[in-house]
Structure formats: structure tokens, C-alpha cells
Automatic annotation (TrEMBL):
Domain of life, source organism: Bacteria
Keywords from the UniProt entry: Antibiotic resistance, Cell membrane, Membrane, Transmembrane, Transmembrane helix, Transport
Assigned protein family: Belongs to the major facilitator superfamily. EmrB family.
One Pfam assignment: MFS_1
Major location category of this protein: membrane
Segments crossing the lipid bilayer: 21-41, 61-81, 93-116, 122-139, 151-174, 180-199, 211-229, 235-256, 277-302, 308-332, 344-363, 369-393, 414-436, 442-460
Keyword presence, Cell membrane: yes
Name of the protein this chain belongs to: MFS transporter
Subcellular location: Cell membrane
Lineage: Bacteria, Bacillati, Actinomycetota, Actinomycetes, Kitasatosporales
Example of a GO cellular component annotation carried by this entry: plasma membrane
One GO term of the biological process aspect: response to antibiotic
Length: 468
């Protein structure tokens, strides 16, 4: 989720109430697509690997090609929308996303599937931040806008958690290609609705593009994820890996140097001087590392070790989806009344408890315990997003709040990519009977992410004096 910049003084909206909420529904639909496609592929990975002859390590790229590109282009897409028109970029994003989804469904080889997934990420980057900016522009009243953003956060949490359930049902009924075909009619409906109800809008002042920064952040993300995925195969101390580390260090230093010297950087690194902001960004990464570790290991464990069907595997994540869906709006209400600390502490406690429940996972662990752990992790995920966004932007002027929200959104997608890469690297090449044991360090990582959120709760701003 991206937080858009709020103008200091906004004229009354020319849109009727019905049209304003229709705009929200259309934009929330696009957000649902982006979130679902981050996780829907997980349940279909074994079927994709069997059909295209790919092992676990290769399958990680089918997920991370999407999330890495999405993370790398989120901020740039928001800037393009401010310059050229939000509805225009939004429609372009829908078209790119839809065509790439069809290409994924038709892909005859794994290489073409990964390439199409990367193009999907390009389209998705034009949807997430741009859609929320459209909603904010359509709803200038602060109270109405707050309600809209609360609903937006709920859709965001639901979409991420609903992906495996939806994917499991589709794979079981129609095969793995259906998880991509399903996007086509949704995109067509969204394009029609955008043309009918969404007004055009632009930013008050368009930023100049930061091409060097964009190229360097893309290189950094690709190197990080590539090394995590391929490190176990090529060897962590091999010449290729050492060269990758050196290139990563040079690219990171170059990115920092470029961004600090630009008057309008892609990413305002000065924000990281504020401890609450830096902690919130790291917390956003931790939440998505934990979520994506859980989703990938759920797929591999139940389908490879327990022999479950894709439908049953997807259904196993229902407690996680339920926890996230119920707690996301509750978390937003708690943030408004009590500040970010308590809901963030709840997020950390539940996530850590869920990870600890599974550190002794074995081939015959009771299903009720696993489902209970998933419920705890889902509750933690539901509680986390609202306080993290609040902590990231609190105390900032409106002109910088949008950038802060965009960086936090980028951190979430980076966390998703890293979580898939780390979990896959731990169990790649492991026989099904040993997969549960090999995954135990990953569950410790989930618990560690929860403990970090507890630390982040201490850095969160307390509620204002006199708050309810």
C-alpha cells in the first residue's frame, strides 16, 4: 500500500458521493489484483515445476521476477503518474498487466514464464501507488478519505492472504495456467470502469525523472535476490558469488551517492535519519519476509511432504486469511485511537508466536497445530500494516509523506522477494521426507521477524496527548 501526498488545501470534490465510492471500488479492485498476484502463484509452483521441468530453486524466480520488478518501479511509476496523468498511467498499467497475464498463461517454457512475470511486475507498479493517489484526489474530505484509506488497507491485507486459497482452487479445477487466465476478465472489467467513472488528475508539481537512481536500485534488488536464490547452488564463496558481492557493494554505494546529490531523488535517503521511519521500513520488510516464508513453505510442505492436493494446500491458509482480514481494519481503528505502539506490539507478538509454534515441524506434525500457527501469523500480518505506515509518515509534512509511504511500499515488496529467496534456498534440493526438518531455520526467521516488530513498536510514536 502506498500513501499518497495530501495537498494542504483541497477544493470540494466535483464528484458525487456514489461516484467517489465507485472510484474507490475500481481502484481497490486493481490493488486486489496486485496483492493476489504476489501470492497466488505459490500454490501452483509444484504443478508449474512438473509441467515445465523446473526445480524449487528455479521456481523461486517465477515469484520473485514479479516482486523485484514491482519493488524497483513503484516510486518511479508514481512520479510518472503525477507528470502524465494518473488515469492514463493507471490504464497503461492495467493493459500491461493484462497482456502479461495472458503471456504467462500461454508460456511454453519456464524462461518465457519468468519474463512474462517480470512484465506483470511493470504493470503492477503502475497500479498500486497510482490507484491510491486517484482515490485521495477524488475524496478531499479528510474524514471520508480516512475511511477510504482504511478500506484500502483491508483490501490490501485480504488480497495477500487470499492468493493461496484462490490459487489452490483454480489449480485444482483448471490447472496452473488458470491462475493467470483469471486476470484477463478482471482487467477488462476494470478498464471499462476506469473509462466510465475515474477522473483524470495530476500532481501539483511533477518531479523530474531520476534515471540513474532507477537503474541503480533495480540492479541492487536483482543482485540481492539473485545471490540469495543462486548462492546455495554456485557456492557462497565461489568466484561468481564474490564478484556478485563486489558488484552489489559498488551499486549500493553508487545509489546512495547519486540520491544524496540530487535535488529531486528517486528515494529521499534523508528520511532514514529519523529512527521511527527507518524502523518502520525495516519492519515492513520483516512482515513480508515472514508472510512469504510461510506461504512458500506451506506449499512445499503440504504438497511434497504430506502429498496434499493444491486445493487442500490453499485451504490450509484460510486461517491466515481470516486473521488478516479481521484484524486489518481493527488495527487501523486502534492506530487512530491509541497510536501505533499497541497494534504493532500485537503484530510482533502474534507473528513471533506463530513462528515458534513451527520450529519443531516434522513430517507428521498435527494439522491443528499448523493451522493454529497460520492463524497467529495471519493475525500478526493484519495488525502490522496500519501502524507501520502510520509510523513511517507520522511527523512529516504532507510533501514528504507521499515519498515516505512509497518507500515503505517498496520495502514490503523487497521483503516479499527476500522471503521467497531465503525460504527456497533453505529447502531447495531437499527430499520430501527431510523438507520439514530443513525448514526449521526458516520458522526461526519468522519468529525473529516478529521479535523485530516488537522492537519497532518501541520506536513508534505514542498517541497525541488527549487522544481517545
Amino acid at each position: 500500500m502506498t500513501v499518497a501526498t495530501f495537498p494542504a488545501a483541497v477544493p470540494p470534490s466535483p464528484l458525487s458521493a456514489r461516484r467517489r465510492w465507485t472510484v474507490l471500488a475500481v481502484c481497490a479492485l486493481s490493488m486486489f489484483l496486485v496483492g493476489v498476484d504476489t501470492t497466488i502463484v505459490n500454490v501452483g509452483l509444484p504443478a508449474i515445476g512438473q509441467a515445465l521441468g523446473v526445480g524449487t530453486r528455479g521456481l523461486e524466480w517465477a515469484v520473485d521476477a514479479y516482486t523485484v520488478v514491482l519493488a524497483g518501479l513503484l516510486i518511479a511509476s508514481g512520479a510518472l503518474a503525477d507528470r502524465f496523468g494518473r488515469r492514463r498511467i493507471f490504464r497503461c498499467g492495467l493493459i500491461v498487466f493484462g497482456l502479461a497475464s495472458v503471456a504467462c498463461a500461454l508460456a511454453p517454457s519456464f524462461g518465457l514464464l519468468v519474463a512474462a512475470r517480470a512484465v506483470q511486475g511493470i504493470g503492477a507498479s503502475m497500479l498500486s501507488p497510482v490507484a491510491l493517489a486517484i482515490v485521495v484526489n477524488a475524496m478531499p474530505d479528510p474524514r471520508e478519505r480516512a475511511r477510504a484509506i482504511g478500506l484500502w488497507a483491508s483490501v490490501f491485507g485480504l488480497s495477500m492472504a487470499a492468493g493461496p486459497v484462490t490459487g489452490g482452487a483454480l489449480v485444482a479445477a483448471f490447472g496452473w495456467r488458470s491462475v493467470f487466465w483469471i486476470n484477463a476478465p478482471v482487467v477488462c472489467a476494470a478498464l471499462l470502469l476506469v473509462a466510465l467513472v475515474v477522473p483524470e488528475s495530476r500532481g501539483e508539481r511533477a518531479r523530474r525523472p531520476d534515471l540513474p537512481g532507477q537503474a541503480l536500485i533495480g540492479l541492487v534488488l536483482c543482485l540481492v535476490v539473485g545471490l540469495l536464490i543462486e548462492g546455495p547452488r554456485i557456492g557462497w564463496t565461489s568466484p561468481v558469488a564474490l564478484a556478485g558481492y563486489a558488484l552489489l557493494a559498488v551499486a549500493t554505494a553508487g545509489f546512495v551517492r547519486v540520491e544524496l546529490r540530487r535535488s529531486e531523488p528517486l528515494m529521499d535517503l534523508r528520511l532514514f535519519r529519523r529512527p521511527p521511519f527507518a524502523t518502520a521500513v525495516l519492519g515492513a520488510m520483516a512482515v513480508f519476509v515472514a508472510l512469504n516464508v510461510t506461504l512458500l513453505l506451506n506449499t512445499l510442505y503440504f504438497q511434497h511432504t504430506r502429498g496434499w492436493s493444491p486445493l487442500a494446500t490453499g485451504a490450509a491458509t484460510l486461517p491466515m486469511a481470516l486473521g488478516a482480514t479481521l484484524c486489518a481494519p481493527w488495527s487501523g481503528a486502534l492506530v487512530g485511537r491509541l497510536g501505533a505502539r499497541r497494534p504493532l506490539a500485537l503484530a510482533g507478538g502474534f507473528t513471533a508466536a506463530g513462528g515458534l509454534c513451527l520450529i519443531g515441524l516434522g513430517p507428521h506434525t498435527g494439522v491443528p497445530l499448523i493451522l493454529f500457527a497460520y492463524l497467529l501469523i495471519g493475525i500478526g500480518f493484519g495488525f502490522a500494516n496500519a501502524p507501520l505506515t502510520h509510523t513511517a509518515v507520522s511527523g512529516l509534512p504532507p510533501a514528504r509523506a507521499g515519498v515516505a509511504g512509497a518507500i515503505t511500499s517498496t520495502a514490503r515488496q523487497v521483503g516479499a522477494a527476500v522471503g521467497i529467496a531465503v525460504a527456497g534456498g533453505m529447502v531447495a534440493g531437499t527430499p520430501p521426507t527431510a523438507l520439514a526438518t530443513a525448514s526449521r531455520p526458516a520458522w526461526l526467521l519468522v519468529a525473529a521477524c516478529g521479535l523485530f516488530l516488537l522492537t519497532a513498536a518501541r520506536a513508534a510514536r505514542p498517541p497525541a496527548i488527549g487522544a481517545a
